[in-house]
Design goal:
Blueprint lengths: L12 H25 L4 H9 L5 H8 L6 E4 L15 E8 L2 E8 L10 H17 L3 E7 L11 H16 L4 E10 L4 H4 L3 E5 L4 E3 L3 H8 L5 H5 L1 H8 L4 E3 L2 H13 L39 H4 L9 E3 L7 E8 L2 E8 L3 E2 L1 H16 L4 E7 L1 E2 L3 H5 L2 H14 L4 E10 H6 L9 E4 L4 E3 L3 H18 L6 H18 L2 H6 L12 H12 L16
Parallel strand pairs: 3-4, 4-5, 5-6, 5-7, 6-8, 11-13, 12-14, 13-15, 15-16, 15-17
Antiparallel strand pairs: 1-2, 2-3, 9-10, 10-11
Helix pairs in contact: 4-5, 12-14, 16-17
Amino acid sequence: MTVLPTRLDTSGPAYTADRAAMLEKLAALDAEHARALAGGGPKYVERHRSRGKLPARERIELLIDPDSPFLELSPLAAWGSDYPVGASLVTGIGVIEGTECLITANDPTVRGGSSNPWTLRKALRANEIALRNRLPLVNLVESGGADLPSQKEIFIPGGALFRDLTRLSAAGIPTVAVVFGNSTAGGAYVPGMSDHVIMVKERAKVFLGGPPLVKMATGEEADDESLGGAEMHARTSGLADQLALDEPDALRLARRTVHRLHWRKSGPAPDSRLRPPKYDEDELLGVVPGDLKAPFDPREVIARIVDGSDFDEFKPLYGSSLATGWATVHGYPVGILANAQGVLFSQESQKAAQFIQLANRRDRPLLFLHNTTGYMVGRDYEQGGIIKHGAMMINAVSNSTVPHLSVLMGASYGAGHYGMCGRAYDPRFLFAWPSAKSAVMGPQQLAGVLSIVARQSAAAKGLPYDEDADAAIRAMVEQQIEAESLPAFLSGRLYDDGVIDPRDTRTVLGICLSAIHSGPVEGARGYGVFRM
């Protein structure tokens, strides 16, 4: 075995300072997650419970297998917007009767579970994950439909939710809707387009138009039950496949529905001879320096997340600022690309392109560990072909068809973010550490570029340059870019699937790899033109 050594001095002052900085970031992150967990606040949670209803996460807890993990996705959605953190929707991957499923649950304590623009984006991302990874989709429904004041941002793109349900079904991926309360207007199409529908007696209300709308549209007088009650749909319309007595009974029926799917994974099974990493995952807290300008060795991360800390490095003496190699995580073989010194040069780009092609030939998922300031700039590098070599790496990533996983550990700037399979390159899953930052470039560099351009413009016009104004503008730009490159800001916009504790990285990757192997893992056999 090629077990990685460690040079991490866990008793040194640098490690201690970096660990303290990471713990401080994690504490701040916990506070933001607490906002999502609080739902609509104590008043509305208590009102919900007083009606005999369970909160969204408690419904999920009863749905999944006892003591099994639930990987929540996009918990900070809508952070920094005018809408509540979490976007009134819980999504994630959980195991039901031994089957990994994508689960969504409306949070009715937040504006009645109504959908705002971020709810829609979060739901669409969940559907995408279910489709690409062949995960049965279970929707726990209780929603008042669109948040009407923001309907202009929801109505047109919102139709994709219903399209996704039909596409999942057409692809042979089961969809289940469990209706606990209101599912009105467009929301009525969630059960309407699901393969299996369960409704809670005397609670579920599913109709295109409620009594007030029916009265306005047709003049007809009708009550909730005759229009869309659970018993009516079970006995008369046929929309409900099963009528549950209460919420626990509905979740029991949902578990039996998933059990009867007898779902089988299409991808290869993991190696059962699992060996934990040789080094303590807790040590990951002090790997990334507080100052991202300081380099760190990604092999220290790899050694704490791969099975047995066993890593066969590919081209270790060539393009040394990018570590590439083969390993397994929770028994699943992976190819790993990890930035070592931040900058990507021509050698690193060519090495990455070859490695990605090899992974596709072997049908091997790829894991990208980000800490890059981008591709190298400068006269010598431009003349040496950095553009075409960077394009070669991006070409390989773009046309690779094996599943990709990305983890942003430190910097992820510029086109390096693209070459390392950022969000725009459709990784199956993308997570960030609290230490991560991502933008077109670093705050100081961006502010400096704007300053140089403004200074040159003033000189060309023969005008004096205001140094005081320049300093103020640079400070403002640096502050803005710094704020917009932080993990919570990016996660709020769903540019990742969650900000995770570094100590959870191996577990999160294991869950994602297991989910990925619900479908076939097949590499590309052909590529576009590589400019040599």
